[in-house]
């Protein structure tokens, strides 16, 4: 069996369409939506609505840790549009999902990232798309468990949940051969982004589950430029499958 794994697609529908080439199945670990590209300020929902210059200012404030100023700036821009900001965002999120799910190969097994909006997914999924969160499935004789979303942060991304809710999903997955999540286990070298120069949040519940159940693999994304892309926890190989928007190449798992 050969399975390709992607995470942090962030609007890259063209590369996603080819991500399953040569594989028996595709696994997607979320973050399909692109709100703003920190490397190219002309790409994403925010610059489409407000222009690349405003996007560059917004990114600059957030990168500097000036989150309240960024929120004030953003609120001022949203106030210039007719209607509620939520309506504009949801319209553009829905448009991105239509393109992304049309490009998504089959069969595909997927879970949500922290910037995703789960309630839109079912309306765009096609035959052969399996959406899993706190659930497990057998692929080629191995049991895969899926835990979607992210934990609460100051960034306030759309699908952040409380630690207790996240831990309950990890517990529901139970013993598996491959544990798939969007965010990493709480291991410092897996959480530090060397370009953003900050630690992202990881899951203590996932780390504990790995220690106790020792799956063959733990696969995740979320941290785009990690200090360490992989490490071992006992018998478990922990792997960041890569920032797909930038790399455009899936991680291959064979057995």
From TrEMBL:
Pfam families: Metallophos. Residues 1-226 form the Calcineurin-like phosphoesterase domain. It comes from the Bacteria. GO terms for molecular function: hydrolase activity. This is Metallophosphoesterase. It comes from Spongiactinospora rosea.
